[in-house]
Design brief:
Elements: E1 2-9, E2 12-19, E3 22-23, E4 27-28, H1 30-65, H2 69-73, H3 92-95, H4 104-114, E5 125-130, H5 132-142, H6 151-160, E6 165-168, H7 170-174, H8 177-180, E7 186-189, E8 191-192, E9 205-206, H9 210-215, E10 220-227, H10 232-248, E11 252-259, E12 265-266, E13 269-270, H11 275-287, E14 292-295, H12 303-307, H13 314-318, H14 325-334, E15 342-346, H15 355-369, E16 373-375, H16 378-381, H17 385-400
Parallel strand pairs: 5-6, 5-16, 6-7, 7-10, 10-11, 11-14, 14-15, 15-16
Antiparallel strand pairs: 1-2, 2-3, 2-4, 8-9, 12-13
Amino acid sequence: MGCASKSSHGSCTYVGQYSDSGYQCPIVTTERWVEDIRNEIVIMYQNSESINARKMKHKRTSEILGDKSEYLLNHTCTTIDKKTIHLPSPNHIEEIWVNSNRNNQVLRCLQTLLGHGRLAHTGYCSILPVDQGIEHSAGSAFAPNPMYFDPENIIKLAMEGGCNGVASTYGVLAIMSRKYAHRIPFIVKINHNELLSIPTRHDQVMFGTVKSAWEMGAIAVGATIYWGSPESTRQLQEIAEAFQLAHEMGMATILWCYTRNSAFKVEGVDYHTSADLTGQANHLGVTIQADIIKQKLPVNNGGYLATKQGKTSKLVYEKLTSDHPIDLTRYQVLNCYSGRVGLINSGGESQGESDLKEAVVTAVVNKRAGGMGLILGRKAFQRPFNEGVELMHAVQDVYLDDTITIA
């Protein structure tokens, strides 16, 4: 029938059972049982530390929000039910993109982005964007912290900051691509505005090719369209073709989805970041198959009503939105195919001491609205390196805090 055999390993004794079919699962003696219990206690202690750490992070977030804590953390959305929105998930690729026309290489690149950094495998995304040296000027962008004239320091900040990826220009990423393309996901911005021409023009033009981005190892390309501008039709055509080629070559696509027209300012009120106009910009962006939409946080609503241009519905203002920033941002999410395409909001320019609070506010609003994350640049790199890292970690902590829920 079988027999028993004893063997020793360290201080533990195992009793193995033999049978006609061979050696079977060992019976563990008291010494091993004690060791297993000890290991379980260690795991319980580590989990307890993790819970305590999360509590501390939540307390820190509340302290940063200050007088806005109650207003933002306890808001209940009664406009667009969260059950109707596709929310960020660790299984985002399987739940959304597996059913799409995106090829396997695109799926791999999207998973690479969402599987990197401190937010890896949460469904959320934190990106460092540094294209302001072109979009504005190198002096205005980097004079506050000249170390970032050196492209390597931009990439180091993204890595140390725990970002999912770094987005920058052809030149910045290309010159460091052999050293870093395999260490952090690259997102190459393929078009830019430049402000050196006189008179000043606001136009996004191609700075390179999709193939160049692919050759340097990028997992995604990014582009801007100024919706509403006289040049938007040309930009739409250029970027739609570029995104199609990027997908064919296996890269993901991210669209900086901005509005720009002087007519969006009416009687002293700027509607460039109104929920209805930015929502429609998002809807245009996902139509040309952007995989992620980058948008500014909405600060008001009623752009269509004020400009008396285009068509809207009173239900947008009566049922689908309120004046709360989370509700306004949820309307942006709704226009990204009900959240199937992730919405990342931008951090905006650096204002100095208020940057930390503003960044955390934006993260809380984005997350509770159903967005996918934050793309934060100047607030991080226009300050000392360590402070920039700490600021990005504070933002990421919002997405890691499971007590900050979808409104």
